[in-house]
Amino acid sequence: MAEPAKPRRKVLFITTDQQRADALVLAPDFDLCPNLKALAAEGVTFTRHYTCAAPCGPARATLLTGLYPFVHRSVRNATPLDARHGNVFMEARRAGYDPVLFGYTDSAIDPRATVPGDPRTRSFEGVLPGLRLEAALNEASLEPWLTDLAKRGYDVPKRLRNIYRHVGSTKVMKQFSREAALYRAEDSDTAWLTDKLLDFWRLRRDEDWFVHLVWYRPHPPFIAPEPYNRLVPADAIALPRRRETIEQERAAHPFLDAWLHEQNTADYLKTQVNTQESSAAEIQDIRAVYLGLLAEVDANLGRVVDHLKRTGEWDETLVVFTSDHGELLGDHWCWGKGGFHDASNHVPLIVRAPGMPAEHRGRVVDAFTESVDLAPTILEWVGLAPPAEMNGVSLGPWLRGETPERWRDYAFWEFDFRTLGGGGLEAALGLTPDQCTLDVIRERRWKYVHFTALPPLLFDLDDDPGEFNNLADSPAYASESARLAGRLLSHRMLHAERTLTNTKLAHAGVKTWTGDRGLVPPSFQATAAGA
C-alpha cells in the first residue's frame, strides 16, 4: 500500500520597505489596507515586533541570517556580509527548496570571496547567497521594469531614475510630489513585480516553492500613481510627533544635533524639498503620499492572495508579512530610518500558517518579537532545526495557540552611524568609526539607549510615549539606568557568536551541545511595575 502523500509546504516570505508599524493608524478614518487586515484575520498579528537594525542592508542581513548585527557585523549599507554566515535560504535548500527572489536583498558581497575588479564589489545591492533571482527591482535595478514600460509605449527617460518625476515636471528627479507619477497604477514598480510573481506561479501549482517577495514601497520616492497620490487628504493624517522647533530637538542630545544637521540639507533623500524647512501642509502631503503607496502595496497583496486561493495553494502556504524597518516621517524632525526612536524600528508582522485551528486565527500577540525570530520560524515550519548560532527564537508556539512560559520581555536593536568617509557624524561628533554605534533595549515601560562614546538616554514610556524627556541624567533614575545597562550587557554576552563555542574535541571524538541559549539572568529582569 502506497504511503499517503506528504502535505505540500510552500513559503511566501513578504517584506515591504520602510513600513512603520503604526502607519495604518496615522489616518484612522481610512481603510487603506483591507487585504492586510484580512490576512491578519486568518493569522497571528505580533504588535510589538521590532527590527534589530537599520537601514536596509543591515536590516535585511539581520532578518535573513537570524543574527544580531553585533554578530554578523554588516552594520551599514555597503558593509560586506561575511561569507561564513548562513541564512534562511541556504538552510531551506537542505529541505529541497530552491528559494527564489522577486525584488532585492541589498546584500554586500564579501570581497574576499571575489577576484580583483569583480563588478559585484561596486554595489551593496547584490543578492544574498542561497537565493535564485527571478525578477530584480530596486534603486539599482530599474532596467527590467523600465524595459517593459518602454514596450507598453512609455517614453522612458535617459536618466532612469527620472521615471519617478511627477507629470509635467521639467526638472531633475524629485523624491516627493502630490502629482501623479508618470506611469499608471497597473504599470507601477509594485504592480510589475507582482505580475512577475504571478507569471512564475502560473505553471508551479504542484511544486513546493519558497518565494521571497520584496516590494520596494512605501520607500521613497514619495511619488505615487493615480489614484494613490491623492487617496488620503492631508488634513486626515496625524501630525508628526516632535518638539516645537528643530533647535529644541537638536539640543536634546549630541547625536540628534549631529544627525539633524546632516539631514537638514537641500539634497537629503535626493530631493529638492528640504523636509525640515517645509511647511506643515507640505509635510502632511508627504505623509499622505506615503500612505497612498502603502495602499497600493495592499492592493497588490490582494492580487497575490486571490491567486493562491483560486489555485487551491492558500492552504498549503506559510505567509509571513513584515518590513525591513520603519520610516520616521518627520517625527522628531527626522526622516528616513535609523537612530533610536520607535518609528524607525517598530515594524508590522503578520504570520499565517496552514492548519491553524479556527479559534487561533486572528490572534493578537503583544509579547516582544524581533526580526531575528523569522528565520528560525520559517525553518521550523519546513521541518528543519534552526542552526544553533542563530540568535532568534521560533514563533511556532504562538502560531499553535500556545503562550510560552518563558519569553523575552524587551526588544533590542542597534544603529551604526559610521560613514567611513572622513566626514559626516564622525567628524561632527569627534568620533572614530568604531565609536559610532548605539544600542537600544526597549521594555514596555522603560527604554534605554547606550552609545559607545556619547551619554546614554532613558525614557519612561508610560509618562512619555513620545520619547521627549531624557531621565538618564537624573539621580532619581540612576538605579533604573544601571539595571538596563546591565540587561543590555547581559543580552550581548548571551548572544555572542557560538558556532564552535559549545563544541569540544574529546578522546571519543567531537562533541557538541545544542540546547537553547536560555534567558537573561533573573537579577536583571524588570520588576512588574518597571517592565
Structural class: alpha/beta
* CATH fold call: Alkaline Phosphatase, subunit A
Name of the CATH first level: Alpha Beta
Helix and strand sequence = EHEEHHHEEHHEHHHEHEEHHEHEEEHEE
* Number of strand elements: 15
What is the count of distinct domains? 1
- The portion of residues assigned to helices is 25-40%
Largest sheet: 8 strands, mixed
In CATH terms, the superfamily is Alkaline Phosphatase, subunit A
Protein name: Sulfatase
Keywords: Hydrolase, Metal-binding
InterPro entries: Alkaline_phosphatase_core_sf (IPR017850), Sulfatase_N (IPR000917)
Organism: Alsobacter metallidurans
Describe the protein in words.
By secondary structure, the protein is an alpha/beta fold. The protein has helices spanning 34-42, 56-65, 69-72, 88-92, 143-151, 189-201, 246-250, 254-263, 280-311, 342-345, 374-381, 396-399, 424-429, 478-494, and strands at residues 10-16, 44-50, 53-54, 100-103, 132-136, 210-214, 317-323, 349-352, 363-370, 411-416, 437-442, 446-451, 457-460, 503-506, 509-512. The termini are far apart.
